[in-house]
Amino acid sequence: MKVLVTGGAGFIGSHTVLALQEAGHQTVVVDNLGNGHRDAVLAGEFHNVDIRNTTELAALISRSGVEAVIHFAAFIEAGVSVREPLRFFDNNVGGSVSLLEAMRQTGLGTLVFSSTAAIFGNPQSLPITEDAPTAPTNPYGESKLFVERLLADCEAAFGLRHVALRYFNAAGADPLARLGERHDPETHIIPLALAAALGVGPPLTLFGDDYPTPDGTCLRDYVHVTDLAAAHLCALAHLAAGGPSRAFNIGTGQGFSVRDVIAAVEAVTGRTVPLVRGSRRPGDPAALVASNARATRELGWSPRFVELKDMVAHAFAFQQARRALSDL
Length: 328
Ligand SMILES: NC(=O)c1ccc[n+]([C@@H]2O[C@H](COP(=O)([O-])OP(=O)(O)OC[C@H]3O[C@@H](n4cnc5c(N)ncnc54)[C@H](O)[C@@H]3O)[C@@H](O)[C@H]2O)c1
Prior knowledge:
Blueprint: E1 2-6, H1 11-22, E2 26-30, E3 45-47, H2 54-64, E4 68-71, H3 78-83, H4 85-106, E5 110-116, H5 139-158, E6 161-167, E7 169-171, H6 189-198, E8 204-207, E9 219-220, E10 222-224, H7 225-240, E11 246-250, E12 256-257, H8 258-269, E13 275-278, E14 287-288, H9 293-299, H10 308-327
Parallel strand pairs: 1-2, 1-4, 2-3, 4-5, 5-6, 6-11, 7-10, 8-13, 9-14
Antiparallel strand pairs: 9-12
Helix pairs in contact: 1-7, 2-4, 4-5, 6-8, 8-10
The protein binds nicotinamide-adenine-dinucleotide.
């Protein structure tokens, strides 16, 4: 299959492009490199295009003959979205509207969309199933939920078939260290804790240690980026086989605390993670853990890397490989 990947130069997109290529698919990446890296697109076509440019997207779709789209391109920082809601809606919703319009114009009718656990807000019970109430606590989550609803409207209006994958916390790196997380600024805990442990970043801030969890710190469901990439291939296969439009929660079903992450980083690096105590961040739920039963049952997806120490070890190996490269 030939697949258009928006945001394919970013963290999860670049790993998915690699997985698609390794499975024998062809890829056409569209990324404006606002937050992505050209050298993270290890194979296939690359086009420096902003997805809000409908005309250019439609021309590219017609010219390249892609058969499906995986749509990652978005802004991702929930905290920034609170300060800059218009910029987030412009990119995440406006960008999706533009892509969907280009798909409508060209008759391209198959889409896998990057959604998020942030659409659920503070869950009423755990693990979180797909039918749990949605109540985002920030504009980022709102923008993703809005797009999920828009996809259903597009199906009703012009037959768009789609899968929304609601990822929990993406973590880890390609196990062969070819790719990894390079957000700038980085806000994700594993790369931040690694940088703190190695003394190449500031001490790690602990945002609240008085949550109603076993050790007082937040519990999150960390899912390995290689497993996330595999979920996209399962979603494409589901749609190609005529499966219905559907949303799936993508996590391992296990919750790890901030202190568990710190312990894993210390075990992997053999160094202490320097800590600073901070207060709770507004809108941070105590615990987010996915039920992946639907994805297992209907997509045949299950995570390969469920140990936190493997996710940390892969992220660490990638950071070390990059550091070795920059020392050359
Ligand atoms: N990282 C996570 O833990 C996580 C969790 C849930 C959902 N998601 C979703 O997964 C997707 C990918 O996340 P990521 O961590 O890889 O982020 P990322 O920032 O590394 O990747 C996003 C990519 O999209 C590109 N992009 C953004 N706006 C664009 C535009 N208008 N036109 C073209 N390219 C554009 C960026 O340059 C970047 O390469 C996002 O949609 C995000 O909301 C991520």
